[in-house]
Prior knowledge:
alpha+beta; five-stranded antiparallel beta sheet; about 1200 residues; 8 domains; about 15% strand; Multidrug efflux transporter AcrB transmembrane fold; 29 strands
Amino acid sequence: MKHIGIKLLLIALLVGFCLFEVIPPQQKIRLGKDLQGGVSLVYAVKIADDADADDVLAQTIDVLKDRVNPQGILDIAMQPVGRDRIEVVMPLPNAEVRALQQEYRVARDEALVMAKISATDLDAALEASDAESRFGGGDGDRAAEIRGLQTAWDQARVAREALAAAEAEAEADPAVIGGLLDQVADAEIRIEDLRNDILAKTLREQELLEILALEDLPTERGEDGELDPSTSERSMAMARLRADLPHLATALENLEETYRRYEAERTGLDDPEDLKRLLRGAGVLEFRIGVRPAAQDVPIDLLREQLADRGPNNTDSMVARWFAINDVDQWTDEDPAVLAAMEANPVQFFSDRYRLVAAEKEGRYYILLYTTPDRSMTHADGDDWAIRRASRTVDDLGRPAVAFGLDQPGGSRMRKLTAPNVNQPMAIVLDGEVYTAPNLNSQIGSNGVIQGNFGDAEITYLIRVLAAGSLEARLSQEPISTSILGPSIGQDNLVRGLEAVAISVAIVALIMVLYYFGAGLVADISLLINAIMIFGIMAMIDGTFTLPGLAGIALTIGMAVDANVLIFERVREELVNNGEDLRTSLRLGFNKAASAILDGNITNLIVCFILYQTAATEVKGFALTLSIGVLATLFTSLFVSRVIFALGTEVFGIRRLPMLPTAVPAIHRLLQPNINWVGLRGPVLGLSVILAAGSLFIFFGRGADVLETEFRGGVSVVMTTRQATGDEPAGIEGEAEGRLLVSRAEVAENVADLGRNTDDPVLAELANATVLTVGPTDESGRSTGFQIKVANPPQLGSDENISDRIVAALVDRFGDVLAVTRPVGFAAEFDDDHSKHTYRLESQLLSQAIDAPSATVGIGDFRGGVAVVVDEVDPPITITDFEQRLDRMRNQPDFADTRGRQNEIVGLVRDGESGGTPTWSSFAVMVADEDASSVLVDLDTWDRTLAIREFELVKAALTREASLDQVSSFSPKVAENLAASAIVAVILSLLGMLVYIWFRFGSLRYSLCAIAALVFNVSICLGAIALSVILGEKTFNGIRILDEFRIDLNVVAGLLTIVGYSLNDTIVILDRIRENRGKLSYASREVVNSSINQTFSRTIMTSGTTITSAIILYTLGGTGIRPFAFTFLVGLIAATYSSVAIAAPLTWSRGGGRSDTETEDVPTSDGSPVLPGATTG
């Protein structure tokens, strides 16, 4: 071999690169939610009343998956919950990143707490005369403002007391009362002005997150010639923030530093905030011509007044409306001087600089755009155009930008829009926000660019959102609940699973050395490099490893053994049968084995390519991972192993290559049988048809019972433990503090016991329920919160009564450990007339809306909503307690329609305290729903859908005893769609494989033989799963005969892996048949028999090592990995059988003119003929 040194260097560089990507593994390797635990985000979805909720949720999830996980490698799960919610679960980052993440979050929350002044807290502090000490901080100006507000508050209080005293007099002087009324009014006006000024200077969380998301790359050099860190976009924005909020300077500096440390270690989508950012927006792109300042067809001044009074969505114009600017920095070149000019006079700024009409309201800036069809391009009235592509590019100034291309209808619409509007500004609007508004210099068609000062995160967001398409339904801006879930397989199964994976790999490596001696050591080195490449490439692309994924890699490595076995068996044939020297044997062995190796792996790559192009994201991830494994196998087996052998023979002068079969000739003879496989074809095929048909009969006969929870739908329950007492173990972190700790295993066993000891078909499903921890989990797997998912019984489907029966059983079993919310009384507890307690929110202050002078809280975003007033709460409760009661009740099935609504609780009458926290006996609950706003819908609709429902909710939250945090149903629609797409993709893959094998082998017969074997293998696997469900219900002497396995996503992955393995196994034998056939146009009986017999040793070695791995994973891996291992084990046995006994014999044809009953002489090792079924030693 030439250039061994260069080739060794190439291998070393590649291995070094992959090691660099993967070391340290605890930081670089992303683990899935089954291993690491995850974060659950539940979003409310706005769905039209006349829409099919299941279909809309399924379409929404499909688009979101393409947006956040286009390659399918991130282990992000999405599932419909109820009729109008979606649960998104992402894996937690590794321990070090989590620690840095927690440090950053603490610093962020501290800064926000220091900055935040809620209206309720400020009023309470003013009433207690300690506002300056609580909120003055280290900022002298802010302290002075609060001191002035406190003075005005005290003056108003004195004036009100004087007014009350004057009015109480029998003969009150009207003039005196009038003067006192003026004093009260003047004081309250001053209070409102000062109060609004102080509240306006608080730091908004969204503003802070946007600043932290800016680029942190220095743009200028200091006097020493080095890049100055303070010149990055983020540093300059933080500096401006510190200047605006000097009392937060230290906290902001600490926050910036902790975020920088966290950012240095994190990878993509480590933080739920990253996921939230990608989930925002419906992905609807529009193009609108901007209204010019001199326009005569739009009442600009009137629309500005209406914006100030009513908000952007409630103006009267039929031709134009206000659209919010997405990021004001894009319009000011991030120049502080330009920003100051814009803030000083936004109307003049946008008019002079962009020839646009602008206005400001409550800190947001708006642009007036046309809404008429001739000056806008939208999807209204069924306009059917779409984005064809979206990609990264640069604009004329070299800044990052997004290029997009429209389809043919879109290009035509764009030309019609732009032709008459040349020299006008055209805004690019995404999800109702203006990203840019360039001037149209000429007519444009199908291609465009969105440009601005975008950071990398913003560019990624735009590309993914545009490429994924638009949603049929709109998600809530923020998740309605967020929780931490423990590893889905449990800590005990996690340890066992990882140990089983390591043992299986070690056993394969040991077998190779024991059987092939030195060559086996070469194979192990090759397999090690294979594994390093797989892990390195997956780490480089931020791929996520689940436990079945790790098991799949262990089995992929086991399958990669096949390539080395093929080569070694070929080398041994040349050494033993043909008497060649080692160098010649190695050359011929590699050359002859290359055909089978390439054909088998290329066929797998074809399957992977079609799966990746056509299947759902989860299957895409499987296809991508398998493709990486296939390419790594090709490289290590055909290149790395050959270079190592060349090094041994040409550099170190090795001339012998002993193996166990050559050292013990009896083994060699045993693995070279002379069996007339074609003669056995008839009975074997008959048996195979019976087995396959019987398997499918059993599988389809069980119906939905063979499907796991995610494919059936069911009920999800979340419960929280009570406060610990005495010496009981208690949580110490966050919301879990003081609550009773219970182990997941104990909860899971109790839930399963409920299912095993009942005749109720609904409760019987609890035997296979999924139990996850919710919230912090200690080292022993104990937690204070648990999520239980139970499948719908196959014979009952989804029924509301199912939830009631499951809830009753769980509450009965766990009643002594559950946190129970006790009822409290209030004035309207028995009043069914809601109208006396609900108020429309259409004024500036809450006090004006509900006629309560003390409620001096601005309504803000709650305009158009409802205020529910609750009086005489007994016993008084804290605002936090009330919030938790409302949240828990919104998560119950009978109030599912209220989820996702914006709400805020304002304390009206303070009545004591609990643990240092104020308690209140009177509250106002403000609620807003943009789809039921009183400024958008008629009052009857507002009253029916918002006021009545919120009053009923408040009554239930205060008076109903509650034991479970959340009860909801979930739909199997997404999993069904995934399975359907996987089936279609596999069928298309088989067609692609059929064409390739037909082309390579010169006959359609070979393709059909391979597919016949594949169909048999999958049928046997499905039948075995159905049989496990049947036998899982049986016991022998109190011992369960077999665990129950049902089809879930992990089993689907196992079936897809079997497809790949089966193809590879079959093609190896078919390739030998083609080689032995030579120039014959058909495969004779002798050719087929000898080919199977010649590859028999390879079949035993490959299948033996891989089956050994599967057995170890099944027996030692625990319940988390067992379904995957069971599927693969059965599939391996079936694939070994079908490749030898079905696919290969079917290639025989009567091309020689002999009848099927005629027997050819098949020579044995001593030259004598052999009868059908005979063997020789």
